[in-house]
Design brief:
Its cofactor is Zn(2+). GO terms for molecular function: metal ion binding; metalloendopeptidase activity. The protein is mainly alpha-helical. The protein is built from 21 helices and 7 strands.
Length: about 450
């Protein structure tokens, strides 16, 4: 024990110069950025150019992790217009902002570095007017304007220097629904970039309401949006778990928003400035399909409790009500597969891909189901598309290897299995890869 401890110390000392060198580079390249809101200097490890580049790289990945885009081009364009209107009156109008509605049922919104902002379908569906939507987008713009994602990145790098220097790690996550979903590469991530302090949340609240007023919205919409979240927290706490983990919402913040509302005059505090009718028109399709997504969410819970027959019944209802929604077909494919309905599973998986070819979840599930059906070339096509959308997921690589193995291309299969083992050391997938590589003589026991 003592010898091992000393060797560990020597190993740590050997790595110390490298760690210190990294720290020295970081400190040399760091700059004291001037916060455009407070006009005070603050340490930043990202220039504005780096911030924008980081957001552009992460945005597609975070969109996929949030179940892709909600497939309503009219609603997407509407949200972008509102976001750009608010961004134009912010403290950083020069940032190339972008806005989208992602297809998660969670009630959430988030801002990445460089003004890349998403709001979930689930949250938009709870709203009644455009001012409420502007409030949430304005709040996220406030985070970007006050450099909150950038400062969070700086804390992440300095705090995690001995492990990974600010890298965003994607990993496969166990998701309710049996083997296919639990290995489906449905994604989880370290959301450090999106976690803010209470002081930062208060600042974003103030900025969000200010930007609303500048853009001509009734600031009461901000208080209304908070009321929606607080009501949902009381009714279904689990629905807001992801939101409150990244956006701590307290009664103090709600009270502060109400006090701030009183500072503004009555000119904008009118029903017209809530813009209810426009919102109702632009969200008509969302409200039409939302009951089907509620069925999907019930089905996911049933899958988690291994009630696959019940889940399949719910998902068949959901796809009947909203036949153009790819994500519903993804989950239906999973349920059909778990019930050993091979033909129906194949049909559902292929339909999901046709409806939304660039949805990671559709491509992955189609890849696995077509592999099981021994349609190996089609399976590889789906898995290669999944890898393009979200690179380097071990479960994708694993099934690519399984296809190569089935097609008699042992070298290609072995390379895939070796790549899996570099990332995953435990569990059935790793055991399978290790066993095959030993059997084929690529590694020795």
């Amino acid at each position: 024990m003592g010898g091992a401890h000393k060797r560990g110390n020597r190993k740590g000392r050997r790595h110390l110069p490298a760690v210190l060198a990294v720290l020295a580079v970081l400190m040399v390249t760091a700059a004291c950025a001037v916060n455009p809101v407070t006009h005070q200097s603050q340490l930043s490890l990202m220039s504005e150019q780096q911030e924008i580049a980081t957001g552009q790289k992460l945005y597609p990945l975070y969109t996929q992790m949030s179940y892709g885009l909600f497939q309503d081009p009219d609603l997407q364009a509407y949200v972008k217009r509102i976001g750009q209107r608010l961004a134009a009156v912010s403290h950083r109008p020069q940032v190339p902002y972008d806005f989208n509605v992602v297809n998660s049922s969670d009630l959430n919104a988030y801002a990445l570095p460089g003004g890349k902002i998403s709001i979930t379908r689930g949250l938009v569906a709870k709203m009644q007017n455009e001012a409420q939507l502007a409030a949430v987008l304005g709040h996220e713009i406030g985070h970007v304007a006050a450099l909150h994602p950038t400062s969070s990145y700086t804390r992440q790098v300095l705090g995690g220097l001995f492990t990974s220097v600010g890298s965003l790690v994607l990993q496969t996550a166990g998701v309710p629904g049996g083997d296919l979903i639990s290995q489906a590469g449905l994604l989880a991530t370290n959301l450090t970039l999106m976690k803010y302090s209470r002081d930062q949340e208060r600042e974003a609240d103030e900025l969000g309401m200010e930007y609303m007023v500048r853009a001509g919205y009734n600031p009461a919409g901000f208080v209304q949006s908070m009321a929606i979240l607080m009501d949902e927290r009381d009714r279904e706490p689990s629905q807001l778990e992801s939101f409150f983990s990244s956006h701590p919402l307290t009664t103090e913040r709600v009270a502060a928003a109400n006090r701030r509302l009183e500072r503004y005059g009555t000119q904008l505090r009118t029903p017209q400035a809530l813009r209810r009718e426009t919102f109702r028109r632009k969200t008509a399709y969302l409200r039409q399909v939302e009951p089907a997504y509620e069925l999907m969410d019930q089905a996911k819970e049933a899958l988690g409790n291994k009630r696959t027959g019940e889940a399949l019944h719910l998902l068949r209802q959901a796809t009947s009500r909203a036949p153009r929604e790819a994500l519903l077909w993804v989950y239906r494919a999973v349920a059909e597969d778990l019930e050993d309905h091979e033909g129906q599973a194949l049909s559902a998986a292929r339909k999901a891909v046709r409806l939304y070819p660039d949805l990671y979840h559709a491509r992955y599930v189609a890849g696995v189901i077509t592999f099981k059906a021994e349609a190996h070339r089609e399976s590889l096509e789906h898995l290669q598309a999944a890898d393009r959308l979200v690179p380097d997921q071990p479960s994708v690589t694993f099934y690519q290897g399984r296809n190569w193995e089935a097609m008699g291309q042992r070298d290609r299969a072995a390379r895939a299995y070796y790549a899996v083992l570099k990332k995953v050391q435990k569990g059935p997938m790793a055991q399978y890869c290790y066993r095959r590589l030993v059997q084929w003589g690529y590694i020795r026991r």
